[in-house]
Amino acid sequence: MAAMIRHFRSSNYITRITRSLSTATETVKSQNYPRNPIPTSIEPKGKTVQWVFLGCPGVGKGTYASRLSTLRGVPHIATGDLVRDELKSSGSLSKQLAAIVNQGKLVSDEIILNLLSKRLETGEAKGEAGFILDGFPRTVRQAEILTEVTDIDLVVNLKLPERVLVEKCLGRRICSECGKNFNVASIDIAGENGAPRISMAPLNPPSQCISKLITRADDTEDIVKERLKIYWDKSQPVEDFYRSQGKLLEFDLPGGIPESWPKLLEVLNLDGQ
């Protein structure tokens, strides 16, 4: 953890990362990663884990990563939360971030690396060991940086059809008072090409939160579809990067939390509630 923090905090290193991003995509296109079989047996290393959660916006990375972090006793570090926390601050960075997020664009690597390094530094001071990363890495270059400074044990790639992802994002709501997340979408979509039907019941708020629900500014259909396009164009090569290392576990969500959670635990060889 300390080595990662020092690596990320180096301003010269961050500058080199930013400059190299323009060539990273071309490098990825020129490489044909072997499509190795996904891990079939997951053996967590004691209590400490160093896992990454991948998946499109709205797939539920935060939900499942958070549950697993509690189960395994390690922090759940979501770069999306780091960005939203910074947006709530009065710092000079908040206005710049607001403009980027509201247009559905990706936050620059330099900003993400700085926010993540601050979070890791705070965690190390508290004695945290291990982590579950959610929302990082987004690019092959970021994945290469992680490989240089730490050993990722497992990469879980959560998957849902695009129609389901759009409906989920449009149904997201946040209570402006307690800050809890809910989803008012009732999803029932027939499977295609032999895939099973996907049904997800809404996650409705309690009565005291109903009148206080708000929608995230970036949860509009146009912005959601733009985020998905950006993800598929720029982030999917990360899957090939980890697949080539035999660390990628692809998990097609069969439905909502009641259906998906026990099956995910089964795949990960974990016991939990």
UniProtKB/TrEMBL annotation:
Its EC number is 2.7.4.3. Signal peptide: none annotated. InterPro entries: Adenyl_kin_sub (IPR006259), Adenylat/UMP-CMP_kin (IPR000850), Adenylat_kinase_CS (IPR033690), P-loop_NTPase (IPR027417). The keyword Membrane does not apply. It holds the Pfam family ADK. GO terms for molecular function: AMP kinase activity; ATP binding. Keywords: Kinase, Nucleotide-binding, Transferase. It catalyses: AMP + ATP = 2 ADP. It comes from the Eukaryota. Monomer. Belongs to the adenylate kinase family. This is adenylate kinase.
